[in-house]
Amino acid sequence: MTKLEELENWFADKNKVMIALSGGVDSALVAYAAFQKLGNSAIAITADYKTLSEEELQTAKKICSEIGIQQLLLDYNELENENFTKNDSDRCFHCRMELSEHLIKLAKEHDVKVIVDGTNLDDLGDFRPGIDALKQNGIRSPLVETNFSKSQIRETAKNVGLSVYDKPSNSCLASRIPWGQRVTAEKLTRIEIGENIVKQITNVKQVRVRDLDGSAKIEVEKNMIPLFDDDTLHEITDKLMMIGFTSVVVDPEGYKPGKINVIAD
């Protein structure tokens, strides 16, 4: 039995499922497998909670169109949740607790007993309080239960023709703000626009613009740093300062997930 068959068979005894689908490859593969096994009894749910970038939202819509699966949008504003906006080390936990509540409510409305997400084996090694919140609410992770690693997910997604198979991993825009510095709509907007500016000027796909009290720290893969010569950095700096950043630097250590997960003074 192939890994994909194993994943599809996970859904065999489920009457109806909802898949929490972002714009990434993990939840895309889960949605694909669910739809192959259950057809219209599989529903994709994408949460537009104001910290998801427009790019991710559009990618999520494209994924559902490719698969042929029905997509519902959950529309709410995380910035109204004080536990989230105060941005302590439990921010992701509060985010996923709120998401879980919305998913459970929607599931009841659609008579769905099983809610799943795209958590995979590689995620379990990181500090991910959000995963604990989902687990506490009974949301299951088929990729973990069928032992899928990230590389296996990408390979399988490529084989079935999902366009996001090689899409760089992403996270919500709030993850660009260090713990202890408040999450605001203004910061999220300049981060999203800032990352789009860097991508457009350099054609680099994996970009983080960290917002450190108004200073922009750009993180890209280490082998991409040479693209940021004086002229390029000058152009980026001008544009980022126009949207509200006070200074701009490129992190010489390169991109690393979760780098600013420390409490800022």
Gyration radius, rounded: 19 Å
The CATH topology of the largest domain is Rossmann fold
How much helix is in the residues? 40-55%
Number of helices: 10
Ranges where pLDDT stays below 50 over 5 or more residues in a row are: none
What is the CATH architecture descriptor of the largest domain?
A: 3-Layer(aba) Sandwich
Distance between the termini: 52 Å
Report strand order across the widest sheet: 3-2-1-4
The fraction of residues assigned to DSSP E strands is: 5-15%
Tell me, rounded to a whole number, the average pLDDT: 93
The fourth-level CATH homologous superfamily of the largest domain is: HUPs
Order of SSEs, N→C? Answer: HEHEHEHHEHHHHEEHE
Overall structural class, as computed from helix and strand content, comes to alpha/beta
Instruction: Name the overall outline.
Output: globular
**Which sheet architecture does the biggest sheet show?**
4 strands, parallel
**Count of beta strands:** 7
Number of domains: 2
Task: Please report the first level of CATH classification, the CATH class of the largest domain.
Answer: Alpha Beta
Protein described:
With 265 residues, the chain is an alpha/beta fold. The chain has 2 domains: 3-159, 3-Layer(aba) Sandwich (Rossmann fold), CATH 3.40.50.620; 173-250, Alpha-Beta Plaits. Helices cover 42% and strands 14% of the residues. The protein is built from 10 helices and 7 strands. It has helices at 3-10, 25-38, 54-67, 82-85, 91-109, 129-136, 142-145, 150-159, 185-202, 230-242, and strands spanning 17-20, 42-48, 70-75, 114-116, 207-212, 215-220, 247-250. The strands form 2 sheets. Strands 3-2-1-4 form a 4-stranded parallel sheet, with helices on both faces. Strands 5-6-7 form a 3-stranded mixed sheet. α1 (3-10) packs across α2 and α2 (25-38) crosses α8 (150-159). The longest helix has 19 residues, at 91-109. It is globular. The model has no long low-confidence stretch (mean pLDDT 93).
